[in-house]
Amino acid sequence: MITETQHVQFDSLGLDSGATLEPVDVVYETYGELNAERSNAILILHAFTGDAHAAGVSRKTGKPGWWDNMIGPGKAFDTEKYFVICSNVLGGCMGTTGPSSTNPKTGKPYAMEFPVITIADMVRLQRMLIDHLGIDRLLAVAGGSMGAMQALQWTVDYPDRVAAAIPIAGTWRHSAQQIAFNEVGRQAIMADPDWNGGDYYGGKGPARGLAIARMIGHITYMSDESMREKFGRRLREKEKFGFDFEIDFEVESYLRYRGTQFVGRFDANSYLYITKAMDYFDITNGSGSLAAALEHTQSRFLLISFTSDWLYPSYQSQEIVNALRGRNKDVAYCELSSNYGHDAFLVEVGEQTEVVRGFLASTYRMLGGNK
Amino acid sequence: MITETQHVQFDSLGLDSGATLEPVDVVYETYGELNAERSNAILILHAFTGDAHAAGVSRKTGKPGWWDNMIGPGKAFDTEKYFVICSNVLGGCMGTTGPSSTNPKTGKPYAMEFPVITIADMVRLQRMLIDHLGIDRLLAVAGGSMGAMQALQWTVDYPDRVAAAIPIAGTWRHSAQQIAFNEVGRQAIMADPDWNGGDYYGGKGPARGLAIARMIGHITYMSDESMREKFGRRLREKEKFGFDFEIDFEVESYLRYRGTQFVGRFDANSYLYITKAMDYFDITNGSGSLAAALEHTQSRFLLISFTSDWLYPSYQSQEIVNALRGRNKDVAYCELSSNYGHDAFLVEVGEQTEVVRGFLASTYRMLGGNK
């Protein structure tokens, strides 16, 4: 499956902050065919550093999509049955308008002139894309991590536009610990003199700070167990400790590599804006009443969490499940056993595939979509 | 209890790396009185950023010791019964020789010329202090976190010099995840241009990098629960989101404050050296056989861990307990219930006090120390 990105521009987008973006570009990919009734569309919502290239092999880069193990013919999101859409989020750096995009007022990148955005802003722009594609009602919205936040936001903000939602390894509001990890990442970037107040485009950029932020992220995406299994205390290309500050352990080598690699593919200001959007995320808008926030949702729900995920622990999904059940919503919940930590939704897809496949099929049947 | 630090200098200390330090200074404090039989001495081993000022009020700074809630008249380490000693670790920056000390060969601070040290090196220097104080056998060695590592090392390296050991919230070898968090902290320091290859004494120093490292540390010392209880999503001196990159949340304010405050009291190079010593820590010396490593210990053991400590989780203490029991050693273990995460050994001292008090009393009785 060779895939290509598509592009659409909208005149303007009003934001939660009160600011307006004019214009706004969205980059997206689609897989499979939209049926005549336009009833088989699924919107995939990517996590923090993801992009529109969710599945197949990119014609441009030759690389597989970030959820290619979940999307495709015969897979969980079966492109022989469903029309699957994935767009890069607002604030991103992979085609959709973000801080590295050109500010039409100045002809230069927005940088820190870019307005602070929210998860609801991301979803508002996705709704415009769905309108543009002529889809009244999505069969499902689905995503892990920040994708789960967007999925939940969809059900609350546009209850009549989504038949089903699949929030995976997510939460209903960012916790103090989640905010704390994001804040340290932001501080690492902004402490790098090469960040230069965000005005680094065309220059070097805060490579060191961004790499530090990414290293912190990677630790939180893995579990204690998975790090032990993958690295343990294995030394890197040596038999004894170096007694210096070069790399001793495999895990050090891995983190440095991942940090450096990330710098080449992600914009530091997007890191700031997207983490801020996550930290602002609270589906109750500060009221604290999850049941009230979810009261007017009309979707079915499938929530999935993973036993070893300590960044978005199961109890956070379970709170959503309990609130939905308290309002007699149609909700299924699976806690899947995995050692992979938060990364599980990307890598441990065996059981996840079965659960998602069944849930989508029953939703599609209920809507009369199956012949 | 007003306390004063004392000081002793030794001619030389051989290190695991093969290097030798000449001379070596040790700063320490003592509380209570050494009895005539010299049988009531307890050595307290401090954690990563601790110092010799464990208890009482410092005559110099007016500040209470870092474990003042555990050490003093009538407390867990009862200074009416016991003679309590605490020294600053090798590699530290609070009086004992470390990278900020003057290198006698150059007349300038060692900086990165300081040799890489190990937990065993720290303990070797402590043994010299105990020799100097004329104590043949310690009633107990006790400490939390890195203090627990030192306590364990004491029982293995000097089995006939310790009657009892109390490793709290510790481990027998640093795990991949523990190494990873330390490595990111080191990278944050070394990425700061003001680190300048470690040669910053007399100058500005890597204040930003060190603050980032400390922020990461603080997150790992607390638990998800304790951060939620302490901060939740409370905003800092505002009622609405700022929609900028200033401080929104209390937890952000706390982390920035803690980071900045730390810079004033701790040396960045000590941060590098001490974290490296922890990462090198493996009581089995790489053999992986904990039972074999502990075979020749002669102490009684009391291990304590805390339910919400995810940095040094209970299972790591339990592995030590199981290995000791497998060799028929005298070992007690308490997993204490606490929401405070790794910080619990410093702040949640109610039950810890009871457990430690009883264990010390029975040890002292067994040795015939009680009248």
N-to-C order of helices and strands of chain A: EEEEEEEEEEEEHEHEHHHHHHEHEHH
Give the full name of the CATH homologous superfamily of the largest domain in chain A.
Alpha/Beta hydrolase fold, catalytic domain
Largest interface: A-B, 57 and 59 residues
- Give the structural class of chain A: alpha/beta
Q: Write down the domain tally of chain A.
A: 2
List the helices and strands and how they pair.
2 copies of one chain form a homodimer.
Chain A: E1 2-3, E2 6-10, E3 13-14, E4 20-21, E5 24-31, E6 41-45, E7 57-58, E8 71-72, E9 77-78, E10 83-87, E11 102-103, E12 108-109, H1 119-132, E13 140-144, H2 146-157, E14 164-168, H3 176-191, H4 207-221, H5 224-230, H6 250-263, H7 268-280, H8 290-294, E15 300-306, H9 314-326, E16 331-336, H10 344-347, H11 350-366
Parallel strand pairs in A: 1-7, 6-10, 6-13, 8-9, 13-14, 14-15, 15-16
Antiparallel strand pairs in A: 2-5, 3-4, 5-10, 11-12
Helix pairs in contact in A: 1-2, 3-4, 3-7, 4-6
Brief sketch in words of this structure:
Two copies of one chain form a homodimer. Chain A is of the alpha/beta class.
Characterize the structure shown.
The structure is a homodimer of 371-residue chains. With 371 residues, chain A is an alpha/beta fold. Chain A has 2 domains: 2-174 and 280-366, 3-Layer(aba) Sandwich (Rossmann fold), CATH 3.40.50; 178-276, Orthogonal Bundle (Rna Polymerase Sigma Factor, Chain: A). Chain A has helices at residues 119-132, 146-157, 176-191, 207-221, 224-230, 250-263, 268-280, 290-294, 314-326, 344-347, 350-366, and strands spanning 2-3, 6-10, 13-14, 20-21, 24-31, 41-45, 57-58, 71-72, 77-78, 83-87, 102-103, 108-109, 140-144, 164-168, 300-306, 331-336. In chain A, strands 2-5-10-6-13-14-15-16 form an 8-stranded mixed beta sheet, with helices on both faces. A two-stranded parallel sheet of chain A has the order 1-7. In chain A, a hairpin with a 5-residue loop joins strand 3 and strand 4 (20-21). The mean pLDDT of chain A is 97. The interface between A and B is large, with 57 and 59 residues.
